Amino acid sequence: MRVMALDIGKVRVGVAVSDPSGKVASPLKVLPADVVFNDAPEFRRLVEDWEVEQLVCGLPKTLSGEDGPQAQFIREKAEKIAEARKLPLAYSDERLSSAEAKRILREGGNDEKSMRGKVDMIAASLFLQTWLDAQG
User: Fold this and answer.
1) For 51, left (φ over 0), alpha (ψ -120 to 50), or beta?
2) Is the CB of residue 51 less than 8 Å from the CB of residue 17?
3) Which of 63, 84, 60 is nearest to 73 (CA)?
4) pLDDT tens digits, one per residue of 56-97
């Protein structure tokens, strides 16, 4: 089962997908948030071309495990996206995924400017992999 993960932000949305067996996550791309929120053709094509069967969105949690301040915004957007694409929706704890993505990019020799567009899709792939692993 192919799964797509979205790291939803107010400006950008990081996109990652799993392999067809639903075992390995890979970063895919970063889209402007309005393209995803408005179910624009570019986003619809991505979902169709990758034959996505499940949507997983990162949910920001505090270090104590409570929903973070952005959680309600994320839930509202995620539900609208899932409904528009008629996909089942799950959430994954995205705590520290952006920090880990930045660390990975820095180790790869990226500076802050070159990391800007990449962090979101790498973060999406990190929390997607955690979600996939939890599915067994």
Assistant:
1) left
2) no
3) 60
4) 999 988 778 788 788 999 999 999 999 999 999 999 988 777
- Quickly list DSSP for 43-108: HHHHHHHTT--EEEEEE-B-TTSSB-TTHHHHHHHHHHHHHHHT--EEEEE-TTHHHHHHHHHHHT
pTM over 0.70: yes
Q: What are the CA-CA distances from residue 82 to residues 4, 5, 58, 119 (Å)?
A: 11, 11, 13, 23
Single-letter residue type at 129:
Q
Length of the chain: 136
Residue 81's closest CA among 39, 18, 116, 122?
39
Single-letter amino acid code for the residue at 132: L
